[in-house]
Amino acid sequence: MASTPVPIPGPRNIEWVGDADTGYLRLLDQTRLPNEVVYLDCRDVQTVWDAIKRLSVRGAPAIGVAAAFGCVIGAQQGAFDKAAEHLATSRPTAVNLFWAIDRMKCVTPSTPEKLLDEAIAIHAEDAEMCQRIGEHALGLIKQLIPEPPTPNPKSPLTFLTHCNAGALATGGIGTATSPMYLAHQRGQPVRVFADETRPLLQGARLTAFELGAGGLNVTLICDGMAGQVLREGKVDVVITGADRIADNGDAANKIGTYPLAVLADYHNVPFLVAAPSSTFDLSAPDGGAIPIEQRAAEEITEGFGTRTAPQDVQTYSPAFDVTPAKLITAIITERGVIRPVDAEHVRSIVGPEK
Amino acid sequence: MASTPVPIPGPRNIEWVGDADTGYLRLLDQTRLPNEVVYLDCRDVQTVWDAIKRLSVRGAPAIGVAAAFGCVIGAQQGAFDKAAEHLATSRPTAVNLFWAIDRMKCVTPSTPEKLLDEAIAIHAEDAEMCQRIGEHALGLIKQLIPEPPTPNPKSPLTFLTHCNAGALATGGIGTATSPMYLAHQRGQPVRVFADETRPLLQGARLTAFELGAGGLNVTLICDGMAGQVLREGKVDVVITGADRIADNGDAANKIGTYPLAVLADYHNVPFLVAAPSSTFDLSAPDGGAIPIEQRAAEEITEGFGTRTAPQDVQTYSPAFDVTPAKLITAIITERGVIRPVDAEHVRSIVGPEK
Question: Do residue A48 and residue A117 come from a single domain?
């Protein structure tokens, strides 16, 4: 599929500045958002490692891209192998991190020039992946929700999203956000409701920031307000990313996604999941095989820098929930649309023989 | 219905200290919860007025009780009429405030002794109302969820609630919390999941506090986690209060209640509303007639003294949502249980002829 690349809106999260021998990696420090737009200029491997570790760069695809550029810096200092080994320890559960570093290890000779070419290729492929997801998503949305004959600013195509599956998490225009940016670029009036996404407020801090910086019409709501927004008929489509998708299409994503899927179903609004094919774990037969991490109590009780709950209160804080395939209208990957969502259609799009 | 009154658990929110001529009103300052348990000793009418205005005392029933005691203080100072008039301006939308003050105005002669008797009666009747709601709710719950033959601490009767319809909001053991306290007092193992309730965190600050202070097993969750908690089969019954209930049983309550009702329905878990008969507005034919107040953006974007969203972001912040009658298993009032929830059954329990 050929389509004009959409420029990444707002501040770039990952950028190589200069040439292979003397250049450096510039990362947007996402821990300072939304209040400050501050860049980290990484001229040594440890600075890259720290940036990944402390979530200055986050999102599985973005971490992979940052680590690839980190390997170039290692080679500048004559320590490529050591850099590759060290960077792999920065986020031990990030599959894209290992994948990107392994790919860098296959470059021969491992000169800064050759490695920079490969890192730029990884970055560009990730941007292309995002763009393809957006094209597939927009095509599906046009089937599900026919456009008015003339674009009408008073009835924009309205999305509701959760957490941040955006440009800040990828090397391109994001996954769930990709159709929003594409439609906006093509002159279609677009509106986005962004859940703030407790406990860590990725929606308020990151999604509202990047969509606003990209010139989109974004409205921030608390997670518990999505039901009322849907009930008022304001939303055309709910779209989120995913952290891991099982063989049958059950999708794990940030806690709070599953209630949106139930609400979308109740209101007959399409619920879409946008994710690269690398998100699928076909060894997990269904969502029951996806472990749900528990997070620290302080994320709930001291989330805003102020203690907002009794000192000794118990909490229950699952990081993810699993949305069953039957509640997902379609899963959109860079390889195509999975619809209906079941094992047969998952395998037909992202199966090993593909 | 006769039942042993359950003592109000934890710190008392409203208490008269001393005799009619020299006594004073002691209010728990709820603005300092959950971090500090601080009392306001009100010895003049203005202090009572300020306490109501700045939400040190909150919840419609509790405001009425506090204003009644405030009238006694006015009489101590020989200015009962002026006190009654002034206190009525403290929260202009609080129906219970006007009701309580009107009732105090009917006391003759308006001596501190006579007025204190009336204020104590208003307080006691409110406590009785709470107790009756709890008895009715517990009776219904026993029909809906048969108890195990022997109480089993490993499978407690588990509630999920939202916001604070608790002892802190009433003159007794609360409305939604009443069956929790009653069951606990009677030796039944009880567990409560409390939604933190964004944006103002009444669940984290108030419900988790009062249930914990009352010795109940309470677990705080973010609003977006309720779906996963229900999906895991942890919840026997969802129960909330209500701000206003229409003739057909549609119920307005704190934003975030409606999604819980949809989720409870999806999981076949009973969804109960507990509210005094004074909550019904039979002049509203259905939920569409209940206006939804919009709240200030800062409650979402600067909830706790920290800016957590971009400076210029738009917000949408409805204070309430409306749960349609068809999603409500039953409404529990002090006069009895409305089930099924429709205009006929609403009128049979709280209609004007009753």
Answer: yes
